[in-house]
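In this supplementary section we document a worked example of the pipeline. Step one takes a protein sequence of length 268 as its only input; no multiple sequence alignment statistics are reported here. Step two produces a three-dimensional model, which step three serialises into structure tokens for compact storage. The input and output of this example are shown verbatim.
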Amino acid sequence: MTLSQSDVNHYGDELYSALVDLRTVPNLRDRVPGIDITDAYAIQSRMVQRQLDAGQTIVGKKVGATSAAVMTLLGLDEPDFGQLLSGMVYNDGDTIKLDSLIQPRAEGEIAFVLKHDLAGPGVTAVDVLRATDYVVPCFEIVDSRIDNWDIKVVDTIADNASCGAYVLGSQRTDPLDIDLALVGMTIDVRQPGDTVGELIATGAGAAVKGSPVNSLIWLANTLGELGIPCRAGEVILTGSLSIMAWVKDPQTITCEFGGLGSCSVTFE
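The serialised model returned by step three reads:
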């Protein structure tokens, strides 16, 4: 770690203010000489703590940059993680106001809901499946507080892994009943007045570190080294199955997962 605690607080407070004020700030990597991943996670912790101080609660965690293409883009050799807060939660069919976000993009994901704590190191696929209550289709609405999505690894980590909001589907599936690596996904978008959506993305569970289960193994073991468990009742977003879809206009987007059901959200 290269930053002082006062610098960590300054940049964490800056990102929190950008979140509250619905604005962006210049990327950190060009403004903060020597900033590293440890600094970025410290800034993330400060930004999250400001949200907790304002009355929110942690309801889960997310894994980001799970595909090889995104890791290459961000200069990562492993994924990153962020914290999900109570103000981010939406349900299948809900409407999200576009003016409540800054520069949103939508990702279709498989979310795990835990029935037991999961704490590394040493977590295996068997441990993940035993600890999981159910899986559901999910949209993660990522939303960067960095100007024009001009991000590399330290920028997105500091900005709580670009968390914005998430939408959970209503169909609950036991992960033992399906091979999550083989689950196929489609995303379509429907403009106001349209009766049929337009296909904009496809993907499969294997795009997420070979399987979404592997994503949760990585998260549990990585957090375990920091003394942080994934707790019973938490929602874990395991990473996007396809490219991110820009959300700029009023529209309804739907993701369909083979064997898992669907999830839909409207922006207006």
